[in-house]
Automatic annotation (TrEMBL):
The keyword Cell inner membrane does not apply. Residues 4-71 form the DRBM domain. Residues 101-114 have a biased composition (Low complexity). Gene3D superfamilies: 3.30.160.20. One of its GO terms (molecular function) is double-stranded RNA binding. This is DRBM domain-containing protein. Residues 80-141 are annotated as: Disordered. InterPro entries: DHX9_DSRM_1, dsRBD_dom. Keywords: RNA-binding. It comes from Tetranychus urticae (Two-spotted spider mite).
Amino acid sequence: MTDNPKEFLYAWCGRQKLTPVYDTCNITGRMPKFKCEVKVPSFAYVGIGISTNKRDAATNAARDFVNYLIREGKIEPSSLPFNMNESVESSGPARSSMDESGGASASYGTSSGFGPRGGFGSGYRPHGQPNPQDRRHDPGFIGIKETLNQDYIDRVAQKRKFEEAEELDVNSGIHGNWTLDNCKQQLHVFAQANKIRLDYKYSSVGPDHNSIF
């Protein structure tokens, strides 16, 4: 007994006096592949297989059709000489087949990780399950927006430090650490204690476009 799904399907169809018909076409993309469809007269189902070469694509299509015959009760699983869960190489998305109730059951992808359990988007994942490739849920992850906000805060703090440094009198130690602010404050205290009225007089020094008071 053969362990090839294509030969097994030929043998089964021969006993039913039927002939499977294979049709193969190219799939364009980053990695060119072949898609094979197999049809059997009197059956509305179309087996589909995808692979990087025509022979393996036909084998996967035959495997898909045999799997359909098992679901329909036409073939006993114990009579199969091969494993139905193993497709030839990584054939990528296979198809969406019909289950026993007539509804569509997703069978896209293989165990290599491609397909609905991979990272193809939220439409292929169960509701509420995060994308495993989405690092926003990782502990300690900092997004772009948070990073930009932190950079802005750091720039403002640095600018403030520069402004304070410009107002600092580096020579204050020479004259007893007196500054304009504490001098004015102590002068007010002295004037109030001695009941002296202060009269400030302001005058400009320098040209009009760059004068100081």
